[in-house]
Design goal:
The protein has one domain. Helices cover 82% and strands 0% of the residues. Helix 2 packs antiparallel against helix 3.
C-alpha cells in the first residue's frame, strides 16, 4: 500500500505539488479578500490587493517547488516573471468578470461566487503555467 502511494506520488508529483501550493495560493487570496470584505473594503479593491499577494506567493512556490524553473540570469527571470504575471492578470480579469456578473449583477452570495471563481482560476493557472510559463525546453532555461 505504501509503495503504491509512493508510485502515485512520483508519477503525479507536479500536479500534487501544484494542488498543494495552488491551495496555498488560494488560501492567501481568500484570507486577504475575506478579511478586507469584513472590514468593508469594496469587493474589487479587496480582490486586487489579495491578487497581488497571491501572485507573489504563487510565482515563488511554482518556480521553486512545482515546475523547478531552470531560468537563470536577470533577463530570463524577468521574462518568466512577466509571463507569469501576465497569465495571472488574464485569469484575474476572468475572475473579476465572474464576480461582476454573478455577484454584481445577479446578486449571488459573494463568498460562494469567490469560491466558484477561484476553482476556475486554479485550473486555468495550471494550464498556463504548465504549457507556457514553465514548460520544459522553454527558451528561459
Amino acid at each position: 500500500m505504501l509503495e503504491r502511494l509512493k508510485e502515485l506520488y512520483i508519477k503525479n508529483k507536479e500536479v500534487i505539488l501544484y494542488l498543494i501550493f495552488g491551495g496555498g495560493t488560494t488560501i492567501v487570496d481568500w484570507v486577504i479578500s475575506f478579511l478586507l470584505y469584513r472590514i468593508g473594503t469594496e469587493v474589487h479593491t479587496a480582490d486586487v490587493i489579495a491578487w497581488i499577494a497571491a501572485v507573489a506567493f504563487a510565482y515563488i512556490t511554482n518556480r521553486i517547488f512545482v515546475f523547478r524553473s531552470k531560468a537563470k540570469g536577470t533577463p530570463r527571470i524577468i521574462r518568466e516573471i512577466i509571463g507569469f504575471a501576465s497569465s495571472r492578470m488574464l485569469t484575474f480579469v476572468i475572475q473579476e468578470v465572474i464576480i461582476e456578473v454573478l455577484y454584481g449583477q445577479l446578486e449571488w452570495n459573494k463568498y460562494a461566487v469567490k469560491i466558484a471563481a477561484s476553482v476556475i482560476v486554479v485550473i486555468l493557472n495550471y494550464v498556463f503555467s504548465k504549457l507556457i510559463i514553465f514548460r520544459k525546453g522553454n527558451k528561459h532555461e
